[in-house]
Design goal:
Low-confidence stretches: 4-27
């Protein structure tokens, strides 16, 4: 009887540990960053895998805002110095974007299918 009880307890502990590992693995998402500095996006072109969250950070001392051409993703609010905007790209494709306050500032996000490891340029 003790061995059955011990096996049940051990099974519960192992099962809980495995379930926790799966939840942790799902909680981890790929991330990439774009810096806004001196009226430029750096990198100007970024390649990521589908499922990656891209975060833009404004390092300039004036506001900037992110907007996608053809409204391909949600527009940001204006970002002051050190402000950020994040968007998760779930669909493969090429996304052109610009600063809607300074439209001469442009950038590109290339989203590849979500196979293999995450790659950035």
């Amino acid at each position: 009887m003790r061995s059955v009880a011990a096996a049940l307890v051990l099974g519960a502990v192992i099962g809980t540990g495995l379930a926790g590992s799966v939840l942790v693995a799902r909680a981890q998402t790929a991330a990439a960053t774009v810096s806004i500095d001196n009226f430029t996006f750096n990198p100007q072109k970024l390649t990521v895998k589908a499922g990656t969250t891209v975060t833009w950070t404004n390092k300039d001392d004036i506001p900037h805002g992110i907007a996608a051409t053809e409204n391909a993703f949600k527009r940001s609010a204006a970002m002051d110095t050190d402000g950020t905007y994040s968007f998760t790209f779930t669909t493969a494709g090429t996304y052109q974007y610009f600063c809607y306050i300074h439209p001469h500032m442009t950038g590109t996000i290339v989203v590849e299918a979500a196979t293999g490891s995450n790659a950035t340029q």
